[in-house]
Amino acid sequence: MAESRAQGRMAGTHGTLILGAAVMVIPFAWQLLTSLKTLTNATRVPPTIAPDWRWSNYAQVFELLPFGDQFLNTAVVAAARTAGQLLFCSMAAYAFARLRFPGRGLLFGLFLSVLMVPPALFVIPQYEIMADLGWLNSLGAIIAPGLFSAFGVFLLRQFFLGLPRELDEAARLDGAGPLRIYWSVMLPLAKPGLLALGILVVLASWNDLFWPLIVNTDPEQMTLSAGLASLQGQFQTDYPVLMAGSLLASLPVIVVFTVLQRHFIQGIAFSGNKS
Amino acid sequence: MWKAVRTGAAVMAAAVLAVTVAGCGADEPTAGADEKATLSYAVWDKNQVPVMEELAAAFTEDHPNITVEVQLTPWADYWTKLRAAVTGGAAPDVFWMNGPNVQLYADNGVIMPLADKVAEAKLDLGVYPKALVDLYTFEGKIYGLPKDFDTVGVWFNKELFDAAGVKHPAAGWTWDDFKAAAAKLSNPAKGQYAVGANIAGQEYFYNTIYQAGGNVISADGKKSGYDDPATIEGLRFWTDLIKNKQSPDLKTMTDTHPIQLFESGKLAMYWGGSWNVTEFGNNEYTKTRVDAAPLPTGVKQATIIHGLANVVSAKTKYPAQAWEFVKFLGSKPAAEILGKKGPIPAYTGTQDAWLAANAKFNGKVFLDAVSYAVPYPVSRNTAAWNDEEFKQLTKAYTGEVPVEQAAKELATQMNALLAKE
Amino acid sequence: MVMTEEGIAAGRAAVPAPAPGGRARRPRRWTAEAGWAYLLIAPTGLGLAVFYLWPVLQTGYFSFTEWGPFGGHEWVGLDNYRALAADAEVRQALVNTLLFALLGLLGIPLAIVFAALLNRPKLRGVSVYRALFFIPVVTMPVAVAMVWRWLYNGDFGLVNQLLSVFGVEGPHWIADPATALYALVAVCIWAGLGYNIVVFLAGLQAIPREFYEAAEIDGAGPVAQFRRVTLPLLSPSIFFVSVLSVIGSLQLFDLVYVMAGSGQAARSNPAMPRIQTVVGLFYDKAFYTNDRGYAAAIVMALLVLIVVFTAIQFRLQKRWVHYG
Prior knowledge:
Chain B: Its main location: other. Chain A has helices at residues 2-35, 39-42, 56-64, 67-98, 104-116, 120-133, 139-143, 150-162, 166-173, 178-189, 191-207, 210-215, 224-235, 239-259, 261-274.
């Protein structure tokens, strides 16, 4: 009796979860199907489900946008921002967590204050800086502000605070200086924190629209997000082509996620519960 | 955290005051017309990119030291991004200009006056339609060489007209003919409509305003015409179509743009320009099913004429080379290349190539329209009141406010903006 | 466990960690250690100063200026703020943005329910479910917006086609002023659900089984257990997610930018006034009409809104967030 009730509850749980998962996945299935239809078939009422295998929708995306370049741009930007943040943030985070110096609380507060400010407050002056440097329409303009992050410092500092103090005390007794301790004791132990930050930065960078949309108007220098948004400017509501483009642009991260799923989930869970 | 943030914020100023960002001084090489240069050339029409690239290649053949990079920015973002690029000093060397923007760009010294260069090269501006030369002349100086022109007509779906037993539209048809046809071509229950009453001036309501005998802006560009009763009739033409369910409402057209509705056989007519030949000629659905007809005649016969010009950025690093390129684009050989694959070239006498290249449609409709065409209405800050047109007319098209009221409000707002110019 | 160890850093982080050896050994003069510290902090410090802190001050300054159509600006005092106070479009955008923030919080209970289901002992396929829920999180927001714009299409979209099976005629979701905001909120919740589930699931897994066993001995049923054990112990995660959700919603841009339609399509979208966000309006003014002084004033208002909201959340947290 109790056994069967428990089984029933389990079936109910699976039922709810399957329903939820379906709501998550069906939009993407419909995106894929639409991307292979003609406009006429995509706008039929009632709808046809089977695709027409119209691959030319994908060809059109490639014809009209330098998709290959944009893919590369996005990858370069993500890699540069991630490398920059991992290095710079971990340096600062280590100092804040482990070293004593005058003005530590003040400086950290200053860093934190950046976290609360919406990005819209930065972009006009950031744009002016890029214009003054002559960097508009270059990858450098997209990358530069993203090399530094208050959030990254904050997250890694939390991580360093959680590491046992005996470690650096021991290293210190062995005569290691702060730089050595940072590089050969702390960094290797901080791998989970670095991984979490890395994943968040890659995701944020890959998907970012606001800043790239503003600084780069040359399609060859755009990232995928901005390029995709401009696709809508050209094709208006030619949904099959738009679905093909959006699928192409989002697929790389989805594939990487599928492969590195465990790390993604851990990284997110870590950042969510660590901060 | 709060205390830290507060103290942090308090000294923020002191902490960053020392930081200054040095702008690098732009060097200004004064290069001769054939010195090595790469010019950027910004355009917005995806369909014209191949022919623009062909023109660029033809130019490089004659000027081996100058290469031209064609940059496509979609229409929806073109002006936003161009302005941003100009502000940031990253404007393209040569770019497409249109009527609504030329005075703003000329007035602010963003584009180079070409009058001296035209005189120096002894170019005859009489080879372009006068309406276009006037459009690009500001305070007596020409700022761009006309590239092409376009007029508006009715694109119609022959299959849907035949199925409804309606005679194909032809020269001489009137508003009444149009309305009678619209009634027969609509079946809202099945999602079939006669036409999409899009809020777009050039292809839609500007035409009917002038056909009704009204005007958008006074000839001196100082006063709005939206409070003229005839103008309001020109707007009512469209709001009535929506009210009678002979056009989809704005909600449907937001979700699916009229051009996609037309290209999937849900609209019998699409008011469009001569520029649509490329799109409709390539699209698998429309290439065999549609053709063009002149706009119907109201109180008057009218169509909006507009054309683009090539302009040179005032801040280009290569002024001599950029002018060389613009001069080439305005020449007869360039017009002939353009006519074969692009829009109607502005250079008089080169339009036959365009007709021949688009023989599957009745392209003559758009050339004949020049005789009764009305110039595109502009002022010094056209964009400002164009914005107001959207705001006020959206309310009229949804039926939220009566069209008279929306038009009068629009006139008030527009006059206020014109006074500020 | 991590939760209880550190506390929500947002709440505590600024209390400087006690220096080894306590306050007595706090350095009073320039030491080599401090030198290293400044050196290590320098790159991020300079980067933040140049690209973030200084720009905030500059934006504040710009909010008192008026810009020409192609750059150049002059001081106009409070003009922008006066115009702001009288601007119905800005007021509507503020209201919309607040609604996005408040309604977006509805995603939290939903995520807790799914996380609780996933946390049931002996449930199989947890990682598969979790992965499926997570896909929207890793999908580019521009792509998500395009897909939903298509699904929501009033005439041909999947949503209305499915509804018509049940004889319901759905509206033009994102072009109808009555539904557009709610339709967009639903997409925000949909897109963020997987993230929240993962955070909550990690929080739930950190709650020791014994707590539930003890509650059961006290005679608490599943509902009472959830109220007395789960919710209090999960409250730090809930707080974290809600702060993040509100800040995210207050800065909403991409979804509306793409879903409302590009350029002219957005301008003739009858629902636009009801979904325009503060950041969307900012983008419009700063980079479309080039009215940067006014745009700066708009985001200063947003800053005030965020500070107020966050302060309220931190004030309220004392009443309901339990740190173990």
